[in-house]
Amino acid sequence: MKINVARIAEECGVSAMTVSRALRHDSSVADSTHKRIVTVAEKMGYYPKVKMGRPRRLEQKRRPLVD
Question: Which residues make Cβ contacts (< 8 Å) with residue 8, sequence separation at least 6?
Answer without folding.
Answer: 19, 37, 40, 41, 44, 46
